[in-house]
């Protein structure tokens, strides 16, 4: 199997697995207990917190562990809104972008039932939001803006260096979903109040993520659920020491390999695109005119070729469609349609993403298989 779906999830790095294993059985103490096993677990948690903070340029005490980026996004958006409302803040507008992850879009929409005003901004054909449209939307006093750093389908990177000052200039909080970008590109938290991260996107374990919560000036959130007050009273529940230790190790490895990985993944991605472009007339890249993450390639196949049909010819290549699939139907990707693709064209899209274990022979074999599959689907 050639695995080309690293935007979906990455395999655990062997060093990450090795780091986690002792904390499952040998060193199993509860990190909130004051005896020796508990203190050892607590120390491992804090070491990992330091590692995650170093990767993203934060202070360790600004990192709150969660079950993943979905929970972090919910905590950031709903937590900020609810705390502000309790404090008598009259701002009710919450702005986000049409190509955001579902958990962001649904979090923003859910708050309408609590009296907030969701505003969903469109994007251009490259998947980027217009700074002018954001500036105009901010003319109404706004509580929070949520913008994804890099898209999980296309890899398109938003221009946060331009957008963040616009948001801050209007006194709104800025939340950034960095789940896809962290460990693939350098990240900056300048002008950002809240940022979400996920371990399994960076060769760490599933089930653990983090939320950056700016300390100065302090950002305040209402917790999503009640409990023992762990994680600065923001996220109650016993911390999963093995997963957190793995997250920390993954962050350390990512920091050491960041530049090396980016150069290599971009080279492999471009090689794959070159082979497909030369052999498949009519194939196009989505978002190619915008800055993108290294390693990601979102394709529109030639007319008449459905992505789902192509996948049936590729049992040995793990890639995904640009759509949300179920056994009964394919729903065209809302991300691609927000970029102006028709439902028919969106149904012809594939997402391919290379990773650390991807080799040049993998690229060559995957290209041959994909070319053959498309040609087979073009036969009458």
UniProtKB/TrEMBL annotation:
It is an enzyme of class 2 (transferase). Keywords: Aminotransferase, Iron, Iron-sulfur, Metal-binding, Pyridoxal phosphate, Transferase. InterPro entries: Aminotrans_V_dom, Aminotrans_V_PyrdxlP_BS, Cysteine_dSase, PyrdxlP-dep_Trfase, PyrdxlP-dep_Trfase_major, PyrdxlP-dep_Trfase_small. It comes from the Bacteria. The keyword NAD does not apply. It holds the Pfam family Aminotran_5. Its EC number is 2.8.1.7. SUPFAM superfamilies: PLP-dependent transferases. One of its GO terms (molecular function) is cysteine desulfurase activity. The keyword Transferase applies. It catalyses: (sulfur carrier)-H + L-cysteine = (sulfur carrier)-SH + L-alanine. Gene3D superfamilies: 1.10.260.50, Aspartate Aminotransferase, domain 1 (3.90.1150.10), Type I PLP-dependent aspartate aminotransferase-like (Major domain) (3.40.640.10). PROSITE patterns: AA_TRANSFER_CLASS_5. Residues 2-365 form the Aminotransferase class V domain. Its cofactor is pyridoxal 5'-phosphate. Catalyzes the removal of elemental sulfur atoms from cysteine to produce alanine. Seems to participate in the biosynthesis of the nitrogenase metalloclusters by providing the inorganic sulfur required for the Fe-S core formation. Belongs to the class-V pyridoxal-phosphate-dependent aminotransferase family. NifS/IscS subfamily. This is Cysteine desulfurase.
């Amino acid at each position: 199997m050639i695995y080309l779906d690293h935007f979906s999830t990455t395999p655990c790095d062997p060093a990450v697995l090795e780091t986690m294993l002792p904390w499952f059985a040998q060193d199993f103490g509860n990190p909130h207990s004051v005896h020796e096993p508990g203190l050892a677990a607590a120390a491992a948690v804090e070491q990992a917190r330091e590692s995650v903070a170093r990767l993203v340029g934060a202070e360790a005490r600004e990192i709150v562990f969660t079950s993943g980026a979905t929970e972090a996004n919910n905590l950031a958006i709903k937590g900020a809104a609810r705390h502000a409302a309790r404090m008598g803040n009259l701002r009710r507008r919450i702005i986000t972008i049409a190509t955001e992850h579902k958990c962001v879009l649904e979090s923003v929409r859910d708050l309408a039932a609590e009296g907030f005003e969701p505003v969903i901004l469109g994007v251009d054909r490259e998947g980027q939001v217009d700074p002018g449209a954001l500036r105009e939307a901010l003319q109404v006093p706004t509580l929070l803006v949520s913008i994804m750093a890099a898209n999980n389908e296309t890899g398109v990177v938003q221009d946060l260096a331009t957008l963040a000052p616009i948001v801050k200039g209007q006194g709104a909080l800025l939340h950034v979903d960095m789940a896809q970008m962290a460990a693939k590109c350098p990240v900056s938290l300048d002008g950002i109040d809240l940022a979400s991260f996920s371990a399994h996107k960076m060769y760490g374990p599933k089930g653990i993520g983090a939320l950056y919560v700016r300390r100065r000036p302090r950002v305040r959130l209402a917790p999503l659920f009640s409990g023992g007050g762990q994680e600065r009273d923001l996220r109650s529940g016993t911390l999963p020491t093995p997963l957190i230790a793995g997250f920390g190790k993954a962050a350390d490895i990512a920091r050491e390999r960041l530049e090396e990985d980016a150069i290599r993944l971009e080279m492999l991605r471009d090689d794959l695109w070159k082979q497909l472009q030369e052999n498949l007339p009519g194939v196009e890249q989505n978002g190619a005119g915008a800055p993108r993450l290294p390693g990601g390639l979102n394709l529109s196949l030639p007319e008449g070729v459905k992505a789902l049909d192509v996948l049936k010819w590729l049992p040995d290549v793990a890639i995904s469609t640009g759509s949300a699939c179920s056994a009964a139907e394919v729903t065209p990707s809302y991300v691609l349609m927000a970029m102006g693709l028709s439902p028919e064209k969106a149904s012809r899209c594939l997402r391919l993403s290379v990773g650390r274990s991807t080799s040049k022979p993998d690229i060559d074999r995957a290209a041959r298989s994909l070319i053959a599959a498309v040609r087979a689907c073009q036969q009458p």
